[in-house]
Structure formats: C-alpha cells, structure tokens
Write a structure and sequence with these properties.
mainly beta, single chain, about 50% strand
Length: about 375
C-alpha cells in the first residue's frame, strides 16, 4: 500500500514512521549528554561555580577578585569587594558573598542589575550559597539560620545552631551540614542523613535535585591503610540509603572525592584528588569517569597537566548536561564550560529522518 510500511504485521504510515525516527533521534542525542564528548570553552582566569538551565554562568574572576556573570559569550563583573557568585536561578537572580565595610563577608543577592546585601549585619560572616526559582536562598548567617525566604533569614535551629545550607531545590528542600553531620531540611524540620558507616569522621551534603536525591561526601581516617592522612568518599543518598560513589583512584590512599552537583537526570559532577593533583569527574549509573579524556580532541584543545588544559573540578551541571568548573591552563587557574557534543549516530538518525520527511511531503504536494 503506497505511503505505508509494515512492521511485524502492523501497518504504519510513512510520515508516522519518520516522525517516530526523529523522536528516537532526539532521545538518543539526549542520552549523549551523559559522559559523552565535550567541547571546552575557556571562561578566563578564575572559577566557575554554577550554571543554570539557560546556560548562564556565575563565578569569580581571579584577575579582578570580583563575581562575574557569563551570558551568551559575554562576561560581566557584578562588582563588590572580594566578591564571589555561587549560584544563579533560571530567573537570573544570583547569590554569593562579598567583603563588607565592616570587614566581614556578607551574603548578597544580585537582581535587577544591582547587588543587595542580604546578610544579617552582625559582626560575623554570612554567605549565600544557592538560590531556587522562587528566590529562596540557602546559606548561613551568624544566628545559625540557613534559609533566606520572604526577605529574611528563617530561624531554623532544630538540628543545631551552626547549620550551613549549601543547596536548595524548587520544593524549598535544603541540604548542608551542621558540625560533623550532613543535614536535610524538608521545609518544616531537619534530619541527620548519617554517613557511609563506621570510621567516617563527618559528612556534608552538598546538593539536592528536584526529585530529592542528595549528594555530598564523608571524611574518613585511613586507618585501614595504616595511614593518618584524611580521605573523603563522595556519596549519593536516595530512598533513605547512602551509596559510596567510589573514586577515580581507588588503589591510592589519602584520596579525596567530593560530589558537588546533581541534575534532575541524576548526573553527578565533582572532583577526585591525591595530594595536590585533582581531576574533575562525571558519575552516571554507577560509573565514575574522568572528564579530561572526554574533551573533544578535534577542537584544538590540548589536555596536559603541565602545558595545556587540565580540568581539576566540576562544580555544576544543568539539565542539558552542560558542565562548569575550573582547571589549569598552562599552569594558571581558569574557569571552563563543557558543552556536550552529540554523537554522530544520533545526528545521522535525525538527518536521514528529517530529509526523508521533507522528501515525502514534497512528493505529496506534486
């Protein structure tokens, strides 16, 4: 029958088949966002701390000692003295901290083109670390509050007066730590989420995604390796259970693995280091990969610890799989952006399907 294909006895119209192929092509390209090949973009001297779903990036420039916003290829200073931008929402609101006139760090909110001091104005440091699309901020002020909402810091003290909020999701759930305990705040009360087991000295929860998955790290004394050096193991906490993410250097003692961010697809980024040697990683479905070998070799970027780029820490990943962080470029600290490069197979499927659909409708119009 003209215009129809038969698949396992089922009659399918040709355009329906081609549309299905295009959809499958997009799905296969989407899966390539996880630990595929990446294009590297140099963001200049300093560190990139966060990227939102629009691709806007914030961090700190080491040459000016000021917070920056990188948007559509343009890098803009946000001002402030010794300022650092730590997060940006999809609404473009930015949080961080800067040195105040009193000589202490003060949490700030950058919105509408101006930098607003949201610290508690005490003779103590305050920090803004994360912001959601509702404008709620996770951080820390001198009285122990870790949630800024409705224009003021909420008095949330039920887990301890030294609580520090490091991340907040769209539901207003906060993760962080107090003393030696990793904490989770559900909007009304806090709880200690525990550690990876005996021998761990303390835990910190660093990020939470919108499905409630929590990541962080636990610090352990390597007594089993007859060493007094400290090491850290990155973890994933979900459904009430904590899982060790492993290490890029499992055979080495004294290595530090820290998970920094998790997107809604469950992709995790962070760093593993031994002494002063650090490598950025991505983790997916039980597999941790060093990001350095995944940089596109055809882009003219050389990955070399001493004479080229070397990615040391991945700090944030958005819903498209774009990753930011920092590393060494010819020995100097630089911020970077990694953009996933679609696999050739998914591009081929999309191209063939698209032109096939165009050709089909062209014949129909004659």
């Amino acid at each position: 029958m003209p215009g129809r294909l038969i698949f396992r006895g089922i009659h399918i119209t040709r355009p329906a088949f081609l549309w299905a192929a295009i959809i499958l092509g997009f799905a296969s390209c989407g899966s390539a966002f996880a630990a595929s090949t990446y294009k590297l973009t140099d963001l200049g001297a300093g560190k990139a701390n966060a990227i939102n779903d629009l691709g806007q990036i914030v961090g700190v420039s080491s040459d000016t000692a000021q917070a920056f916003l990188y948007d559509n290829g343009v890098k803009t200073s946000l001002g402030g003295t010794n300022s650092c931008a730590t997060d940006i929402s999809n609404n473009g609101q930015i949080v961080g901290y800067a040195l105040s006139a009193s000589g202490y760090n003060a949490a700030f909110l950058f919105s509408g083109g101006s930098l607003q001091d949201i610290g508690d104005h005490q003779l103590a440091d305050s920090y803004g670390y994360s912001i959601n699309n509702s404008g709620q901020v996770a951080g820390h002020v001198s009285n122990g509050s870790f949630l800024y909402t409705g224009g003021s810091w909420a008095g949330v003290y039920d887990i301890g007066v030294s609580a520090i909020g490091l991340d907040i999701n769209e539901a207003g759930q906060v993760v962080g730590y107090t003393g030696t305990k990793a904490i989770y705040y559900n909007g009304s009360s806090s709880q200690d989420i525990g550690s990876l087991g005996s021998g761990y000295l303390n835990s910190k929860a660093t990020a939470i995604n919108n499905s409630g998955k929590i990541i962080g790290y636990c610090i352990v004394n390597d007594i089993y390796a007859n060493s007094s050096s400290l090491s850290a193991h990155a973890f994933l906490y979900k459904n009430g259970a904590m899982t060790d993410l492993g290490s890029l250097y499992p055979q080495d003692t004294g290595n530090l693995c820290i998970a920094n961010d998790i997107n809604d697809a469950g992709l995790i980024v962070g760093k593993c280091s031994i002494n002063t040697f650090a490598s950025a990683f991505i983790y997916e479905d039980g597999v941790m990969q060093n990001l350095n070998p995944l940089v596109d070799s055809t882009s003219g970027v050389t990955i070399d610890y001493t004479s080229g780029w070397y990615l040391q820490e991945a700090t944030s990943i958005n819903s498209s799989g774009e990753i930011v962080g920092y590393g060494l470029l010819n020995g100097e600290l630089h911020a970077f952006l990694l953009t996933p490069v679609p696999e050739p197979s998914c591009i081929l499927v999309l191209g063939v399907s698209f032109f096939g659909l165009v050709g089909y409708w062209g014949r129909k119009r004659k």
